[in-house]
Amino acid sequence: MRMPEPDAGVIARRREIVSALRAIVPGEGVIVDESELRAYECDGLTAYRQLPMVVVLPSTTEQVSQVLRTCKEMGVKVVPRGAGTSLSGGALPLADGVLLGMGKFNRILDLDFANRCAVVQPGVTNLGISNAVAHEGFYYAPDPSSQIACTIGGNIAENSGGVHCLKYGLTTNNVLGLEMVLMDGTILRLGGRHLDAGGYDLMGVITGSEGLLGVVTEVTVRILKKPATARAVLIGFPTSEQGGDCVAAIIAAGIIPGGMEMMDKPAIHAAEDFVHAGYPLDVEALLIVELDGPPAEVDHLIERVEAIAHSKGCCYSRVSTSEEERLAFWAGRKAAFPAVGRISPDYYCMDGTIPRKALPLVLQRMNEMSEKHGLRVANVFHAGDGNLHPLILYDANKPGELEKAEEFGNDILRLCVEVGGVLTGEHGVGVEKRDLMTDQFAPVDLEQQQRLKCAFDPDGLLNPGKVFPTLHRCAELGRLHVHKGELRFPDIPRF
């Protein structure tokens, strides 16, 4: 994985750049000492590390605006960062860039229960929103596994999902309004407390844009009333393929669970040893299916789900009988990623999405890839929407194992595209999948995406080196540079 070559001229001006930033964010808001910069050298994809040139921690929208405007005027790159939980290297710093940390934007600004929305700053954690509205019986639906730490600003950057996105949608389906700052310092407001807005869906463009278009400084999210009842079913299968067949059959029957997750045997054992959730240890695959709604509806749907599971050869079934037991079922799934860390020195967490009907085939092919690369894999994924999270187990202290894990991961992602899926479901492209974008998109598709980038950031200063395998200059994509009202070489005829 290669990043853009650092600009020696920018690095030589480091003292001048730091001085300009300190004039905007005084006190401890600008970090330059190497020991303190070390905390920002990577995000959740710890295989790749790079010290930033400088870190700035603004606390107001006006400071963000001034920082971006100053960096644009000085020709300095900027990498926005939330909590740093990204698993695709989206917040990987640049040696010649400013890392813009949004951790001080951590206040809940307004709770509007009448309009069923909350206005928060981007540094508020995902779970923090649900906790803030729980006393009125509300919650925020998207729930990534890292929800205790990840922030709503980062969720918007990656269009995060989670267990309950099957029924209640991804981040993009639950954001109503944004305040954001462009690279030239312009402050924009998109959407609001209303259900929909006229004109182009710019919020849809920003959500999932991975920090390449602007910096979000305020968010209005949809909050939902908690369901009257929620119960979960644990369903075990002799093979992963049978579990995959059951997932497809449940959706085909017209049942949309609140959540439907699947784990294979290595992940089951790791989670059970870590959390003691009561998982069966003699099955090859475990489904967690949650049904929510009125009690009568939930009881009926549980019967239907269990009948479908038995028709697909399930060998274990257990229904939660209390809220504590339901939460225990989910505790194992939510802790699956750290739990796997107990059985391997290192692991590489992948993220790809496939059509549900391809699940049995993909699981079989991943087992074959595991043999080919000589590395174990534990599977934890959002089965209902086909979002896979294979965890490739390796030891970084063994020469060549990281490279083997990367190639194994690339093969999995190519397989996702081959069966009609996509490279990412919720982790984003970042640097991890950047060089695989040509496996999914033709050159004309990538160029059109880069034209959109140019409309927001014509100098390519926001989070460069991410998402696009080859970043063209805007002029190369048909954009003409105008300076002081004149085109370059004005004497040349243009048509």
TrEMBL record:
Cofactor: FAD
Sorted UniProt keywords: FAD, Flavoprotein, Oxidoreductase
GO molecular function terms noted in the UniProt entry: (S)-2-hydroxy-acid oxidase activity
Domain FAD-binding PCMH-type: 48-226
UniProt xrefs under InterPro entries: FAD-bd_oxidored_4_C, FAD-bd_PCMH, FAD-bd_PCMH-like_sf, FAD-bd_PCMH_sub2, FAD-linked_Oxase-like_C, FAD-linked_OxidoTrans_Type4, Oxid_FAD_bind_N, Vanillyl_alc_oxidase_C-sub2
Top-level taxon of origin: Bacteria
Protein name: Glycolate oxidase
